[in-house]
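Now for a concrete sample entry.
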Amino acid sequence: MGSPCSTIRGIPVILHRLSKTCRFMPKHALPVTDLRPMARCDIDTVMAIETRVYAHPWTKGIFADCLRVGYECWIAECDGAIAGYGVLSVAAGESHVLNLAVDRPFQGRGLGRFLLGHLLQCARRLGADTALLEVRPSNRSAIALYEDSGFNLIGCRKNYYPGAQGREDALLYAIDLDTLQHEP
């Protein structure tokens, strides 16, 4: 196992071994060798990625809190290296993609699409019928991914994100999870 974590609270972690291409992965995609729940011991590596890909990254405390309250926090590994991660909250029939990131060397090869697909399947499994997310208008690649995945623009949150000079709005997207195909 490529993970530095083999147990969580003394319980062995069950990894999702991917022996064949997942339907969320394009043919030219990276080989995701492990998809597993995030653990506290992953936070330092996750933070290194977070600071590389975001100008205004989350803190260690935010990730620790997400794990503590039981959010769906997932790690994708490629050849033993953490390549990306996603964080999802689910409550009252609604889910919220809180964070989705792919480390720079792994970007542009379908890993973000794969992680997003996995988070949406988790949301369905946990009883959500809708998924929401916010994205910066300046994050064109993320907007393209979300729109291509079936998300619809439903609004704008003014001055939502910190910016280099003041604040930046957030575009609010939603998807009806009943429109997704069921996994075989």
